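Recap slide: 3-oxoacyl-[acyl-carrier protein] reductase, sequence and predicted structure.
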Amino acid sequence: MTDRYASFVRSGAGRALVKRLGLPDPPRLRRHTPGDPLLTGPALLGSATGGRLAGQVGTILTAAGVELRDPATAEAQERFGALVYDATGITDSTGLRQLYDFFHPRARSVLPGGRVLVLGTPPDECGTPREATAQRALEGLTRSIGKEFGRGVTAQLVHVTAHGDAGTATGLEATLRFLLSGRSAYVSGQVVRVGAGAAEPPADWDRPLDGQVVLVTGAARGIGAALARVLARDGAQVVALDIPAAGDELAAVANEIGGTAVQLDLTAPDAPTRLADHLASRHGRVDVVVHNAGITRDRTLGRMDADRWDSVIDVNLSSQERINDVLLERGLIPAGGRIVSVSSIAGIAGNRGQTNYATSKAGVIGLVQSLAPALRERGISVNAVAPGFIETRLTARIPLVVREAGRRMNSMAQGGLPVDVAETIGWLAWPASGAVSGNVVRVCGQSLLGA
């Protein structure tokens, strides 16, 4: 679906009009193309006094081919592909002044499509209430930067456990590589937690899913089809699943990526068993399960019939629980496996006329948060993505005024693309992301709706 307003804004006449009237100005987002460098310019790496991560981050970025600059010696007029700041040394509110000292003189020095990352300690791991208070304050900083810097610049906060292991270091590297790259074009204002957990660095960061068997449900079109393409591009052997009615489209996607197609109605009583049997006989395991299948049956609650309620809950939430149960009971998801579920910002903020959908998507968040501690003991991570306004066939049917509001009410002033959701799920699926678990990452361009 074409965003005609964004196309007009990028014309000479449109740019002049937008500037004169103060209208939304959608930037061109920096999206990933295989072979791209991590950043379009050098990274300025700073640290609060006593920060524990700057040295490790510098080593990771240098190995990834990023040029580093020191705040003490960087030229005043130099522009940067990223500003990266280790705030783990801030132990009380007075130390927050160091953030101002680093970011204030460089607020206009980030290149279009650049990145801002702040590294902190999870507040629940802090040794004193004052330290926890200061670390919690970092969320306000990063979310405000995401709304202020513009020009496609994103800003994130990464909480890194102080009780990690080798898996934490790998998980931090995977997270840095995702958040600094064009893969994260429509992700901004997020808090990502890197904890302890098993994580394996890939032999080739351009193919981080080599050798992985990945199941994608709802793969025939939209986000699911983009998912299948991105995961295959990154080296995965994709098992693409959708309902029999979408068989032709599903087969086309599977053939395009060299994957296999499975036609199955996930709400059928025997669906989990049939799926488990297929995966066991064909592959012997499934390294990554991506729960993408979902439906909408919109109606205000007072006018909603029971079938609309039941079908949405069953497809969007209950089917995920049933499939997880069978695959885990049969040991088909091995240690080092990943489960990624698709939620929605509707599950965070609610949405008029979508009580069934919002309930199901909030339930997905609950599923992730409740499973993460138990699965951590088995070396399996579980995370969710929560898309905002993504340009698909479904959003194309939304009335014009509502559609335009959905596109513009975020820091990027535009809708996201299915590939933006796919890239985020791809990162969470990497073996290198094993220390990232229990997270809910919004892919919404930092929507003004929700938390």
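The two ends are 28 Å apart (CA to CA).
The chain has a mean pLDDT of 94.
(End of recap.)
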